[in-house]
Amino acid sequence: MALHRLGRLMLALALTGMTAVPLAAQQEVPAASAAPSSTADHSRFKELEGPFRTAAEVNETCLSCHNTGPEQLHGTIHFTWTAPQSDDPEQTSALGMLHVANGFLLSTPSNVDACTSCHIAGTRLDDPAMLDASSDPVAPVDCLSCHEPTGQWTIANFHENGAACTMCHDERLKGDTPEVKDFALAAQSVGPSTRASCGSCHFDADGGPGVKHGDLNADLIEPAHTLDVHMAAAPDGAGFTCATCHTTRDHATTGSRYTGGPGETPDRPALAGAAASCQSCHSDAPHAAAANGARLDRHTDSVACETCHIPAIARGETKTRVLWDWSSAGEVDRRRQPYVDKEKDGTVTYASEKGHFAWAADFQPALVWSDGQLVTHRPGDVVPGIATGDVDALEDAAREGDPEAIAAAFSEAPWIAAYGGDPASETSRIAPVKVMNSVVPIDEESRALVSAQFAGRGRDALWNDFRWEDAVEAGMKEAGAAFSGDVAFARVRQMIPVNHMVAPADQALGCTSCHVKNGLLEELPGGFVPGRDRFDLLDRAGLLVLAGTLGAVLLHLILRLGFGLFYRGNRHG
Amino acid sequence: MADTQSNAKGVYLFTRFERFWHWSQAVLILFLMASGAEIHGVWNWLGFETALDLHITAAFTLIVLWAFAIFWHLVAGHWRHYVPTTKGLWAVMSFYATGIFFGEPHPFQPSPTRKHNPMQAMAYLGFKVLMAPAIWISGLALWIYGKFPEIYPDTLPILWVNAAHVAAAFLIAAFLIAHLYLITTGETVFAQLRAMITGWDRHAGSKDD
Question: Do A298 and B177 touch (CB under 8 A)?
Answer without folding.
Answer: no
